[in-house]
């Protein structure tokens, strides 16, 4: 983990983006100047983020963040980037809940100005638990915090999910349902199967991922529960914190109409992903943080809904993450950053965890 190359996150030229952004803004806010344009070092491998300040007396905000669909030339992580969908979700969450979601400003669906669709939102100030190196490693603000401070951050973060699921009108989330028959959970899983087929098209498939899909079918919940608006990428690395309290909830591109447990399973598993990696590299990590039992208990206290079938939903989260990891690994191979092994399961960083879940020996 410490020696592997950081995957390439963009093929774009920031200076060229800045010039094109200035030209675009001049049509919406004549005379505006873009200053302090920056590409965050933590920029992800999916949609990209640009930070800038807006200098104009009539500017709605000064600090801005621009969310830009992935460059089609960069071997994208996902097949489709629907920026209008993300923009709509964030606007609706802001209207219907008290979740601290950034104010969305402008949406541009025409790819011509910057090479891909994008939207602009108000920039949130604060700090984010790092992914590289993960917050479970020593040397960052969350790891250095006290147990009480981490307990506060955990409780407040679970509260974000509880309030989102309880406050957002479920009917308003139905536009996120994938096409096809079946319940919201069935449609979501079928969409993941289609995504996996896209990832391995013309490449070696993953026996582990396919066995995990088989496990899901054999352990399908008897009662899926009602669907709600799911955040999608529900993890603390997508929250900006003021101290240890959420100041902004980010990254809604995976939002979905799903049972509550899909978000809970993702939140629990993504922490375990970092924790397991950290232990594997000889550090204790944060073993008392974001424990599955504590997350489930806190969520039940806040909502009155006791999470169920969590083995199913944490395995489903690990499976979904495995598909993303496989795509990223094939992307790295495309750019000459890694070599593809004979066993494609070796490209999945957490393959041992997913295999243990399928065997029933993880929890």
Automatic annotation (TrEMBL):
<dbReference type="InterPro" id="IPR011009">
    <property type="entry name" value="Kinase-like_dom_sf"/>
</dbReference>
<protein>
    <submittedName>
        <fullName>Phosphotransferase family protein</fullName>
    </submittedName>
</protein>
<dbReference type="InterPro" id="IPR041726">
    <property type="entry name" value="ACAD10_11_N"/>
</dbReference>
<dbReference type="InterPro" id="IPR051678">
    <property type="entry name" value="AGP_Transferase"/>
</dbReference>
<feature type="domain" description="Aminoglycoside phosphotransferase">
    <location>
        <begin position="82"/>
        <end position="277"/>
    </location>
</feature>
<dbReference type="InterPro" id="IPR002575">
    <property type="entry name" value="Aminoglycoside_PTrfase"/>
</dbReference>
<dbReference type="Pfam" id="PF01636">
    <property type="entry name" value="APH"/>
</dbReference>
């Amino acid at each position: 983990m410490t020696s592997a190359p950081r995957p390439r996150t963009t093929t774009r030229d920031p200076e060229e983006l800045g010039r094109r952004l200035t030209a675009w803004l001049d049509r919406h806010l004549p005379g505006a100047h873009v200053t302090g344009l920056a590409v965050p070092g933590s920029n992800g491998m999916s949609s990209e983020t640009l930070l800038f300040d807006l200098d104009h007396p009539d500017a709605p905000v000064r600090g801005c963040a621009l969310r830009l669909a992935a460059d089609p030339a960069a071997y994208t992580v996902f097949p489709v980037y629907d920026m209008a969908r993300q923009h709509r979700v964030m606007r609706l969450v802001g209207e219907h809940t008290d979740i601290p979601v950034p104010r969305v400003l402008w949406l541009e669906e025409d790819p011509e100005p910057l090479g891909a669709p994008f939207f602009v939102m108000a920039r949130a100030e604060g700090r984010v638990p790092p992914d590289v190196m993960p917050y479970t490693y020593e040397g960052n603000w969350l790891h250095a915090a006290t147990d009480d401070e981490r307990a506060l951050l955990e409780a407040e973060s679970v509260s974000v999910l509880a309030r989102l699921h309880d406050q957002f009108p479920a009917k308003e989330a139905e536009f996120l349902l994938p096409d096809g028959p079946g319940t919201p959970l069935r449609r979501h899983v079928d969409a993941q199967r289609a995504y996996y087929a896209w990832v391995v098209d013309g490449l070696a498939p993953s026996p582990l991922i396919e066995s995990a899909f088989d496990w899901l079918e054999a352990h399908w919940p008897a009662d899926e529960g009602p669907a709600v608006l799911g955040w999608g990428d529900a993890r603390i690395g997508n929250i900006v914190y003021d101290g240890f309290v959420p100041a902004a909830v980010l990254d809604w591109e995976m939002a979905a109409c799903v049972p509550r447990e899909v978000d809970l399973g993702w939140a629990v598993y993504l922490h375990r992903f970092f924790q397991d990696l950290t232990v594997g590299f000889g550090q204790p990590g944060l073993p008392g943080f974001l424990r599955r039992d504590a997350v489930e208990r806190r969520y039940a206290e806040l909502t009155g809904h006791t999470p169920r079938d969590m083995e199913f939903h944490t395995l489903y989260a690990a499976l979904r993450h495995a598909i993303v990891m496989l795509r990223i690994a094939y992307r790295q191979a495309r750019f000459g950053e890694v070599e593809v092994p004979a066993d494609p399961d070796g490209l999945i960083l957490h393959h041992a965890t997913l295999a243990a879940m399928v065997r029933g020996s993880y929890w």
